[in-house]
Design a protein that fits this description.
Elements lengths: L3 H19 L25 E2 L17 E5 L8 E4 L5 E4 L7 H10 L4 E6 L5 H4 L2 H7 L1 E7 L7 H12 L4 E3 L4 E2 L7 E6 L13 E6 L2 E5 L5 H9 L8 E3 L11 H7 L3 E4 L12 H9 L3 E4 H4 L1 E6 L4 E6 L25 H5 L3 E7 L9 E10 L9 E7 L4 E7 L5 E7 L9 E9 L2 E9 L3
Helix pairs in contact: 2-4, 4-5
């Protein structure tokens, strides 16, 4: 017969052994890796990345299925397509207005019928210009944009397209866990605060599949980066989308140290007027031995992950432009491409403008009509129009595209503009490499 005291001791021993073998105890603490530089990645045609030791998802990836992240070549703009292991899709941005046909065609080439999650990182035209075409041509699940507006025709077109499809625009902000795929963690980590600058308000998304991760940054700049660092958010990623097309206002040393990427992708157009990517940003990446891929040099760049390692392929764009590729050519669009036979056949263009109210009342709706013709006085279809209105306190920009009659209308509400102050409007029309300007004005009453 076992004595009561001995039985109690035996039970305690059994419980203790059970705790040890079951791994109970304190949970591991996951922190951002702020270590030193990465080693250089292999330089083979289709390199395989062995990710550095980083926090990994608790979800076990299916080795026979892969996550694909496409950095689509849209010239001077941004767009990323994510296809999950189970076939779910996410599109972040869609390039500028003149790339909307190309975006639609690219998605169709991937046999995509539905965009489960659509994100407009911020309201700048080079990121949301093609979103209205995507909304028009595909079934859309959830749609996110940050809580900031823009007085542009491009922004208005996106909202109208969403309204037509009865899509609710959810607020893109830090702290959102997006329902995408059971095997992929998707977190929106910015914007953390509210900023006046539209770039700083960019939605920043982090993807994690198994031991691999991606950080997609939109046009987030130094203030947003500093707030992400201060918040202690996990920023580490194997692949970093370099923010703002490689502008010097982003991608600080401190931010790179926290992200510690093996690869960086820069989405910018060839010979763009902004000088992107900035030399100092390229130097920072070089010093940290981060392998850089660029749309302007390589075309569209596709990363595929099985949860353990990442492979890279590229779709070279013909002549390093964004108007066509050898394997994926844009479908015929109502808008003309930036470069092509039709654009180069025209030797010059001319722009003229008229305004429906030269002395509008406060809060009135005003419409400017722009006409673009070629050197043969024929209407030019597909010319890009930008109207800049110089109000007393700030400038406002509006964008449109000419129709088959060569006309473009830009409507806006003047709000409570300064009474008696002459608001001058500068109009720029571009078609391929050709451009023309026109003027308009009004005086609020």
């Amino acid at each position: 017969m076992i004595k009561k005291r001995s039985w109690s001791w035996a039970v305690s021993l059994i419980v203790l052994l059970a705790l040890i073998t079951s791994g109970c105890g304190a949970q591991p603490v996951i922190s951002v890796n702020n270590g030193g530089d990465n080693t250089a990645a292999p330089s083979s045609a289709s390199p395989v990345i062995q990710p550095t030791e980083k926090p990994s998802s608790t979800k076990t990836p299916s080795k026979d299925k892969q996550l694909a992240v496409h950095f689509i070549d849209v010239g001077q703009g941004g767009s990323q397509l994510i296809v999950s292991p189970s076939g779910k899709t996410m599109l972040i941005d869609a390039g500028n207005n003149d790339k909307e046909a190309w975006i639609v065609q690219y998605l169709q080439q991937q046999n995509i019928k539905k965009i489960d999650i659509l994100i407009g990182t911020h309201p700048d035209a080079d990121h949301i210009g093609g979103l209205d075409a995507v909304i028009d041509n595909f079934e859309i699940g959830k749609f996110y944009m940050p809580k900031i507006q823009a007085n542009t025709k491009t922004f208005e077109d996106v909202l109208l397209a969403a309204k037509k499809k009865k899509l609710k625009v959810a607020t893109a902000k830090s702290g959102l866990e997006l329902e995408f795929d059971k095997q992929v963690d998707v977190t929106m980590i910015a914007p953390i605060n509210e900023y006046k600058d539209t770039n700083e308000m960019s939605a920043v998304v982090r993807l994690e599949y198994g031991k691999t991760s991606f950080l997609l940054t939109g046009d987030a700049e130094s203030k947003s980066e500093a707030d992400m660092l201060a918040a202690g958010i996990a920023l580490n990623a194997d692949v970093l989308l370099v923010s703002h097309h490689g502008s010097k206002t982003s991608t600080s040393d401190a931010f790179l140290k926290a992200v510690k990427p093996t690869y960086a992708v820069i989405q910018s157009g060839k010979d763009n007027k902004y000088g992107h990517p900035a030399g100092e940003v390229l130097e920072r990446l070089k010093k940290k031995k981060i392998k850089v891929h660029r749309n302007d040099l390589e075309g569209s760049i596709i990363f595929t992950s099985n949860g353990e390692d990442i492979k890279i392929t590229t779709v070279k764009t013909k002549d390093n432009s964004s108007s066509s590729t050898a394997t994926m050519k844009p479908s015929t669009s109502s808008e003309k491409p930036d470069s092509g036979k039709e654009a180069t056949a025209i030797k010059a263009i001319k722009a003229s403008a008229s305004i429906d109210q030269s002395a509008p009342q406060q809060n009135a709706a005003v419409t400017v009509t722009v006409k673009v013709t070629d050197d043969q006085k024929q209407p030019v279809k597909g010319a890009k129009i930008k109207l800049v209105l110089a109000y007393k306190s700030k400038d406002s920009e509006y964008e449109a595209t000419t129709d088959k009659e060569g006309n473009a209308t830009l409507s806006f509400q003047i709000g409570r503009a300064a009474t008696g102050f002459k608001v001058n409007g500068t109009i720029t029309a571009t078609y391929g490499k050709l451009s023309a300007t026109a003027k308009t004005s009004f005086i609020p009453q």
